[in-house]
Every structure is written in structure tokens, then in C-alpha cells.
Q: What sequence folds into this?
């Protein structure tokens, strides 16, 4: 690799990177803590004066990332900065974070290079643990007993049979060293008992007994085929086609040499594409698994490797699950000594007592139904809407993986500890042991003692026992003092490092601190990568412009680590967010414009403008906004440039875009088109993206010119009451108010004229006082409803109620702020059937 010019895609800690190989030497900084591969890196000054270190095979970056103790490795290898301190990280000039689509355009990091640095002995303990799990299952469920295995020993959900005694539980939850198949629903097990006491099975069977006989015969046939070298024949067994992961993990137990322990079909396809591109497209799932195993068996580089070790290598070299570790917050209740005792036992109790063992439930729907029933039985009241969110958050604990981060909190601001999830993840602790809590818990290996209090409380922490921690909040938490750290005190020992060179770097803009995109931004990113231009559309107040700017800061920010003042995790409304927008705009990587009825082709592409010369005023061609962006992007090939067009539909799009309609298409990027004003050829570079916003209350997507509509992808934004969950103005629940108001608007008008949640989130925080709420209703909500209703005050009264709208006087009634809140509470919350 050393000295080569080719760049590679590589996946590390769940993220895609572009690897720029070192030219046989790495650069050691004067003050910093990262190795560099190029002297032109923007993080270096006077790079020609800095020390170089031999890197003959080009693999120092990976050895550094994989080292259990990076500082010790760096010291022993002589990787010291100018101040004599160990260099423990990797700069973005060597590993640049990129989008998934960009990574797919690069060749993947070669197997030969990876094998040279892969430490088999480091994975030996995990391989042996997997075999112990398999042996345990084979002992509890001997293969010779399978032809007569009763349903009671197989199926989940049986109230009279301990979960740990059934095969489905053992396979999914009791053998994590073999690899995970958790997630989704219990339907993957073919037959199970629901929380309502009924059996679920494929309705092609007459009853549960027939279903079990067919499923059992199918599993036996699958293992038999695998043992006889006919893995692809499993695709033709109809009774087990719907449970690929269950069948595949069963093969790992009873036919371990037949396939690799790669359970999900998507993972099998992923590894085949890495090893032999294009080989799997027309194959069925188990034919793919057979092909993957044959490729490995024929490769002399893997001679003598156990299948489990091969999988460990594949998962290390080219992991299919590109999701970085989660950070989850769990509130702690009870006395301090209970918390300390739990922490010392490596546990974090979860304060939720309505559900019982989560393993009993097939999916989150069953859990929520059980939650509702338990709440109503205990309180005699209807379950509140907030209960669903609590149930879903609790269900998410089953998805915790080794290495996920857990933050223990109390109240709205106190952080008690930070740790990493261990192999057990979620556990259910039965009553009876006085030395530990009972109920839901998470197995945690705590980091050096870490505690403190946030300057600004987080209100939702009091309402929600479990919640994900967004990146910006984690950055606030990690700045808290680690008590006792200087003295080397520890609560339970140091948690195992998770790629520390990338995962624990101190600078906010470092790739280490940048998790995968959240679902909203990921949907925008996918749409832009697919078509090149995307429109965010929806009713007013649904956050279209807000998310467009969030996307710009996040995506452009993480790709612009060379720019000073850029923070890709800056929160909207903060000085850091404004500074990042400004830095991106100055660099020409971000351009924001607003269309309006007078905006034209000459503003966007090019046009003749009056210019004062010595001979007088003459008309000369002047480049428009988009043409200038394309010029800058063409000069910076490979650097993403984004144009945000706010209020896209207020402009005359066919006139503004002109001939660009043709060359905007993704497959026509780079093709020339002749501009009518200058007669010059013009191209849209492939590294330009166009992101528009469109208010559907003004104009429906259906009314856009069809030629333009075909060239854009569209992402709809609808009102979302979840940011208002639990927020109240006096007794009025803002989330319920918004949902019921919008239900009336949908019923009497249409979905495009609903009220967005952003109206009630000034500066991103729910309104909390009657005066703030009343001002929004009078100054923003009512005028918009008046416009929708064409001043039909009878219709307005149907929206807000006759106690609020004076139909005869064509106005709101004279109400104090508190009275307005009370009347809307009575109209839209108490006894309202709207939903």
C-alpha cells in the first residue's frame, strides 16, 4: 500500500471513511495527538519541519486504532509528538468521514492488507465463548430429540414455562456469543404465544399443532441439507422461508461447518459484494450463504480458520452494520446506597415496573398493550399518550449492544456515572436477592468514576426514565469533571477501549464525536444522493428550513474539518451553529437563496446586467448564483457543495432553471449544455446538491411542472407532536392540543393545511406560559386558519370552538391569556373525540 495513490473505503466503528494511504512515512505533529498522512493537511503548520516516522507497510493507522492501550502502543512504537507525548489518534487527512454513497464509489480496503494486521489471538476468546454457547444448546436440546421435540420446549411467550427453558429464547437471547438475532418481532420464530394468551402461527395451517409439526420438520430438513452439503436446498423448504435468521443460527449450532455464522441475508450479500462483487444478485438467501462459505473454503488465506473466526475477521474488516454505538440515558431512582450497590455489581436498574421481563413480548406492540392494561388496572384511569413513548423507550433496551454507552442520571441535571454495555445488555432480575435490585436492568462496565451536574437542566429527564442522548447533549455531559480521575480512582475498573483513536478524541469537530445521521437527516441524505436534488415539502411550521440548515451544518461540517470555526454537531439557535453556517458560506460550500415571484434565470444561472464603463453603461453577462456554485465545485472536485433554496415554489421554476432541467439529472451531471446568453458550454458537477423547501399550504407538489417534478426527489414533513410530548401550558397538553387541532383541519380541509409543531417551539423549546401560548395562537395560528378558511368564521369556530371564536363579530372573543388556554383545553382536550 505504501506510496500508492489509490484511496480506499473502510468502515470503522460503524462509519464509512475514505482511507488515504500513507506514502511510506507518517507525520508526527508538534503538539497534537494524531498521526498525519499528508503534509498539506489543514491541521498542520510548517509540516516540512515536523518529524516523519517509517510506515513501510502503511498499516500504522490500523494498528493504532486496534491497540487496547493506544498510548502504550504509540510509546513502544516511537509515535511521539514534538513534546514527547504519545500520538493516539488518526487525522482526517488519513481517514476522512464520507457518505455511504461516496464510499461505494471507492474500492474497499484490500483483504491482504487487512489480514496482515488482523490479530487472530485477540479474537480467540470470543470464538471459544461462541462454541461454549453452541455446546450448551446442543446439550439442552440434543439433535436426536428434535423429531419429537414438543412445542412447549420451543416457543416463546408461554406463561407456565420459564423462558430460559425454551429453544427460541436460548437462540435469540441466551447465546449472544454466537451472534445476535434480536430485533424485529417474534414472528421470525414461526410459532409463539402472544401476551393475550393466543398462539401466533402462519394461517396457512389449520391449527397450532399442524403449524408446529411443519415448522419442526422444516428445521430438521434444513439442518440435514446443510450437513449433507446442500445448503442451497434450504431455500425450497416452504415452512421455514420466513425465518432466515432463525434457520441460519440453528445451522450454526447443529451444522457448524456448513456455513459461516452470518445470519441476516443482508449481511451475507454485503460480504459477498466485498469478496466477489456481482456474485449474489440472482441467488436466493441460502444459496448466497453456500457461495460465501465456498469462497472462504477455496481461499488459501483462510486455510485452517474456524468459521466463527472467519466471521470475526469479516466483521472487523468490512462490518455490515454501519451504526455507531448508541448513547442511552437511564434515570436512577431510590436511595444513593441502592445506586452504589447496583453500580458495584455492574448493573443499572431501570425504573419501569408495568411490564415484567421484556423477553416475554413478541414486539413493541404487545409490550405497549401490556403497559396500557397494567396502568389502567393499577390506576383505574385511561393510559396517557406519554405511556406509549415510555414503552417504546423501554423496548429499545433489548437492542443495546456491547460497547453502547450508558449514562446514569438523577433528576433533571445530575449525572451519576457513565459506562459501556457488556455482553449481557438488557437483563431481567427476579426478586429474592437482597444484594441487588429486581426488575429491568442493564449490564454495565463503568468507566472511571464520572459524576457532576449540568449547568442547564434537561426537563425531559424527569418525565422519561429511558431516552437516547443526542450528540450535543453528550458533549455537555463529557465535559463534566471525572471525579477522582487524577488520582486514578475507579468504580469498577476501566471499560474496554472501543477504537479509542477515533472514538474518544477531545475536539468537537473530530470524526470521533460524529455519530451516524439521525433518521430525518439520513432520509434527506439518501434522497440527495439518489437524485442530486431534493425538495422538503409540507405544511407551515413543520421544520423544513430548520432541517435543511441542520443537514447543511451536519453533512458539510463533518466533511469540512479543514475549516476553522466549523462544528458539525452545533445545535440550531446557538452561536456555534451560526458560526458554522457563516464559515461554510464563506468557503462557498454552502449557498442559501430564497425564491420569490421576481426571481429569474438571470439571478440563478446568468443574465445581462448594466455595468458602468468609460463609454457609459453597457449590458454585460453576469454569472448567477448557481453558476458560481458550479464553478467553485468544479475547481474543488470531490468536495461537496450544497445549495439551499428556501420557498422553492414561490419562484417560476421552469423560467428560473431553463435548460438546467436536463443536466440536473444525476446521470447527466458533467454533460455540457449551451447557455443562451453567453453561448458558453455549462456543466453541473457531480459534487453539487440542490435542497429546496416548499410550503404545501401555498402550493401543492402536484401543481409543479411535471418535467421538474420528475427530476427531484421529495421528502414530506408533517406535524410531529413528539417534541411537545409532556409539555404543558397550565393544564393544556401541547402535544394533545396540536394533534386534535390538526385532526379537525384534516377532516374539514386537507392534510396540507395542518399546523406545524414549530409554532409552539420558539428557539426549539416548548412554550410554557399562557402569555406565550396566547400570543402564538392570536398572532400566528389564527391568521393562518383565517387564510385557509377564507374568513369563514363558522369554519374557524369548528376548528377552535365557539367559546374562542366569535362568529358574528368575525374575531376571537375578548379573553385573557389564561381564559384562552382554559377554553382551548375544554374544547380540544377534555372530552374531545378528535384524534
A:
Amino acid at each position: 500500500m505504501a506510496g500508492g495513490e489509490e484511496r480506499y473505503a473502510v468502515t470503522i466503528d460503524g462509519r464509512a471513511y475514505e482511507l488515504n494511504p500513507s506514502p511510506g512515512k507518517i507525520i508526527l505533529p508538534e503538539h497534537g495527538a494524531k498521526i498525519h498522512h499528508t503534509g498539506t493537511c489543514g491541521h498542520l503548520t510548517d509540516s516540512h519541519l515536523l518529524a516523519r516516522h517509517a510506515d513501510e507497510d502503511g498499516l500504522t493507522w490500523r494498528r493504532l486504532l486496534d491497540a487496547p492501550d493506544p498510548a502504550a502502543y504509540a510509546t513502544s512504537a516511537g509515535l511521539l509528538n514534538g513534546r514527547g507525548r504519545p500520538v493516539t489518534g488518526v487525522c482526517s487527512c488519513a481517514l476522512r468521514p464520507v457518505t455511504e454513497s461516496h464510499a461505494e464509489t471507492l474500492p474497499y480496503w484490500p483483504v491482504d492488507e487487512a489480514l496482515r494486521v488482523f490479530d487472530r489471538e485477540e479474537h480467540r476468546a470470543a470464538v471459544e465463548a461462541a462454541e461454549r454457547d453452541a455446546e450448551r444448546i446442543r446439550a439442552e436440546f440434543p439433535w436426536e430429540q428434535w423429531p419429537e421435540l414438543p412445542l412447549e420446549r420451543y416457543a416463546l411467550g408461554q406463561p407456565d414455562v420459564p423462558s430460559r427453558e425454551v429453544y427460541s429464547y436460548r437462540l435469540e437471547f441466551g447465546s449472544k456469543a454466537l451472534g445476535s438475532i434480536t430485533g424485529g418481532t417474534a414472528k421470525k420464530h414461526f410459532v409463539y404465544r402472544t401476551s393475550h394468551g393466543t398462539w401466533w402461527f402462519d394461517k396457512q395451517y389449520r391449527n397450532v399443532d399442524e403449524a408446529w409439526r411443519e415448522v419442526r420438520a422444516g428445521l430438521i430438513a434444513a439442518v440435514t441439507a446443510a450437513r449433507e452439503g446442500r445448503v442451497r436446498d434450504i431455500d425450497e423448504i416452504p415452512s421455514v422461508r420466513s425465518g432466515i435468521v432463525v434457520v441460519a443460527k440453528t445451522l450454526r449450532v447443529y451444522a457448524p461447518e456448513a456455513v459461516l455464522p452470518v445470519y441476516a441475508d443482508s449481511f451475507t450479500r454485503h460480504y459477498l459484494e466485498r469478496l466477489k462483487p456481482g456474485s449474489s444478485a440472482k441467488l436466493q438467501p441460502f444459496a448466497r450463504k453456500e457461495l460465501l462459505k465456498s469462497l472462504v473454503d477455496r481461499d488459501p488465506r483462510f486455510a485452517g480458520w474456524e468459521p466463527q473466526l472467519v466471521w470475526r475477521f469479516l466483521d472487523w474488516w468490512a462490518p455490515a452494520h454501519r451504526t455507531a454505538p448508541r448513547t442511552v440515558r437511564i434515570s436512577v431512582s431510590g436511595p444513593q446506597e441502592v445506586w452504589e450497590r447496583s453500580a458495584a455489581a455492574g448493573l443499572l436498574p431501570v425504573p419501569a415496573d408495568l411490564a415484567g421481563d421484556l423477553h416475554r413480548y413478541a414486539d413493541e406492540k404487545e409490550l405497549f398493550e401490556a403497559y396500557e392494561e397494567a396502568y389502567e388496572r393499577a390506576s383505574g384511569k385511561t393510559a396517557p399518550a406519554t405511556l406509549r413513548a415510555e414503552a417504546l423507550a423501554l423496548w429499545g433496551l433489548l437492542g443495546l449492544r456491547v460497547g453502547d454507552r450508558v449514562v446514569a442520571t438523577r433528576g433533571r441535571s445530575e449525572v451519576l456515572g457513565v459506562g459501556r454495555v457488556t455482553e449481557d445488555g438488557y437483563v431481567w432480575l427476579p426478586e429474592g436477592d437482597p444484594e441487588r435490585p429486581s426488575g429491568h436492568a442493564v449490564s454495565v462496565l463503568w468507566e472511571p468514576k464520572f459524576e457532576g451536574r449540568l449547568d442547564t437542566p434537561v426537563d425531559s429527564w424527569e418525565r422519561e426514565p429511558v431516552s437516547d442522548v443526542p450528540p450535543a447533549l453528550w458533549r455537555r455531559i463529557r465535559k463534566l469533571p471525572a471525579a477522582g480521575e487524577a488520582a486514578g480512582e475507579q468504580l469498577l475498573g476501566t471499560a474496554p477501549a472501543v477504537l479509542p483513536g477515533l472514538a474518544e478524541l477531545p475536539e468537537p469537530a473530530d470524526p470521533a464525536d460524529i455519530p451516524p445521521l439521525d433518521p430525518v437527516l439520513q432520509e434527506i441524505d439518501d434522497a440527495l444522493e439518489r437524485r442530486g436534488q431534493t425538495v422538503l415539502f409540507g405544511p407551515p411550521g413543520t421544520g423544513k428550513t430548520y432541517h435543511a440548515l441542520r443537514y447543511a451544518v451536519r453533512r458539510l461540517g463533518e466533511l469540512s474539518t479543514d475549516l476553522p470555526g466549523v462544528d458539525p454537531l452545533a445545535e440550531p439557535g446557538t452561536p456555534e451553529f451560526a458560526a458554522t453556517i457563516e464559515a461554510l458560506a464563506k468557503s462557498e460550500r454552502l449557498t442559501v437563496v430564497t425564491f420569490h415571484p421576481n426571481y429569474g434565470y438571470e439571478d440563478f444561472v446568468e443574465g445581462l446586467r448594466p455595468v458602468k464603463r468609460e463609454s457609459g453603461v453597457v449590458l454585460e453577462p453576469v454569472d448567477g448564483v448557481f453558476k458560481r456554485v458550479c464553478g467553485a465545485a468544479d475547481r474543488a472536485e470531490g468536495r461537496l457543495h450544497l445549495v439551499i433554496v428556501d420557498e422553492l415554489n414561490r419562484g417560476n421554476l421552469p423560467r428560473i432553471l431553463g435548460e438546467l432541467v436536463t443536466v440536473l439529472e444525476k446521470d447527466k451531471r458533467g454533460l455540457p449544455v449551451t447557455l443562451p446568453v453567453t453561448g458558453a458550454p455549462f456543466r453541473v458537477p457531480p459534487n453539487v446538491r440542490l435542497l429546496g423547501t416548499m410550503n404545501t399550504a401555498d402550493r401543492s407538489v402536484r401543481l409543479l411542472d411535471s418535467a421538474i417534478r420528475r427530476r427531484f426527489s421529495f421528502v414530506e414533513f408533517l406535524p410531529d407532536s413528539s417534541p411537545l410530548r409532556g409539555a404543558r401550558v397550565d393544564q393544556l397538553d401541547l402535544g394533545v392540543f396540536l394533534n386534535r387541532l390538526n385532526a379537525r383541519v384534516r377532516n374539514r380541509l386537507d392534510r396540507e393545511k395542518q399546523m406545524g409543531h414549530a409554532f409552539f417551539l420558539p428557539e426549539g423549546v416548548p412554550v410554557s406560559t399562557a402569555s406565550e401560548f396566547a400570543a402564538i395562537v392570536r398572532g400566528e395560528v389564527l391568521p393562518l386558519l383565517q387564510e385557509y378558511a377564507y374568513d369563514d368564521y363558522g369554519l374557524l369556530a369548528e376548528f377552535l370552538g365557539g367559546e374562542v371564536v366569535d362568529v358574528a363579530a368575525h374575531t376571537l372573543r375578548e379573553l385573557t391569556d389564561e381564559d384562552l388556554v382554559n377554553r382551548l383545553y375544554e374544547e380540544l382536550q377534555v372530552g374531545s373525540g378528535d384524534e
